Every structure is written in structure tokens, then in C-alpha cells.
Amino acid sequence: MRLKELKSVLPEDLYKVLEDQGIVDMRPAQKKAVDSGVLEGSSLLVCTPTASGKTLIAELAAAKNIIEGTGKAVYIVPLKALAGEKFREFRKKYDSLFRIALSIGDIDSADSYLVDYDLIICTAEKFDSLIRHHAPWLKYVKTVIIDEVHLLNDPGRGPTLEILITILRQVLENVQLIALSATIGNPEELAGWLEAGLIVDRWRPVELKKAMYYNGEIEYHNIAEDDDKENRKILKKDKEKSR
After folding, report:
1. What's the rounded Cα separation, in Å, for the pair 72 and 52?
2. The pLDDT of residue 29
């Protein structure tokens, strides 16, 4: 899919920013996400390798909703350092289109000043606190992005994230949830729990090779063939479910 194919469905300013970034072709997972309705408000669980374009899928949903006045967006990350990194990255890309805030501090505050911001980047613990303090601007949130969603399985952060997602779906009935991960062992089950469409793709920008060294010789294993087999299994499951 070419970026120009989305020109009619993306806000003009957003399309120009993407074009200025040198984006010409959409990656396989991004095309699947568009076909699955990410630009029409569909919730998605995106499971693809590192650097395959997961973040842009979330950005498209959030930016489109913000620019069109549908609602604010919240981007949840597991670590404060990652929150700061995303804040700098998004400011560089989208500062001309909407206001971006970083909220990782005091967990005993509703941060009412965030009502003036469009995209809010925070940790799960911070957003959990904002919900519990009944932040007045929460009712304006349309898009919630959960990065590294596989941390649901983490004994430390997992329970907070699970409770956060559960409360989110009760407090924000029409929220668009975009969950991202490169490592999920049970994507179908998790997508079902999230009530989200599932995007799985094995494409990666740099070829990954697997090899076994034994007795002075290296035997390479064809990962691409394994990925094709896995993709076929997933497609077969999707077809069976749709019947």
C-alpha cells in the first residue's frame, strides 16, 4: 500500500507531516491495520517484530482522532525513560499539529492542566492514578495506546496494567484501544479479552537469521519459511472464526 492511497482518508495536515518524513510505502502490518479499520475507530492488538511499524499504526489512529476533534489520545508506556523518549519523538513529529504532554510525576494528582493537551504520554501507574483521582479531562479521551502490552504477564507491572485496562473499558465505553507488542505467545486469547481485532505479521526490516553451530559447522535455518507457515496458520484460524 502506498501512502498516497490514504490521502483521501487522512487529515490534510497529517498527510503532509507523514509525507515530509519520507514515508512512501506502508509496511505490511500498517496495511493490515488500515484494512482492519484503525482509521475508522476499530480497536486492535498489533503483534509484529521490532521496527516493523507498530508505533505508526497507533500514531495514525491518535493523530486522526485529535485533528478531527473526535477526542484526546493517551499513550501508555511501562517506563518513565521510555515515556520521555516517546515525548521527544512525538514532539519532533507532531508539535505543529497538536499539543503533547508528558505526565509521569506525582501520582496523587489529577493533573487538571492536561485538559489543554491533546496527546498525553504516561506510565500505566500514572494513568491508573489519574483515573482513580477522577481527572476531569478523561471524558474527552478517544484513543488509548498501550505499548509493550505483553507486560500483562509481568508479576510486577502486570496486575496494575490488567486492572487499568479493565477500568478503562468501563469508564470510556467508546474508547479505541490500540495495544502493541513484539512478543505475545497467545495473541488470539489476548485480542479476545481486549475485544480488539488482531494484526499479526512477521515482516521485519532486517532479515533475521537463525543458525546452529555443531562440530565446527554452521547450519542455517530458514526463518522466512517458518514465518510464512505461522502466517498461514493465523489466516486459517481467522477464516474458520468468520464462518
Report:
1. 26
2. 94
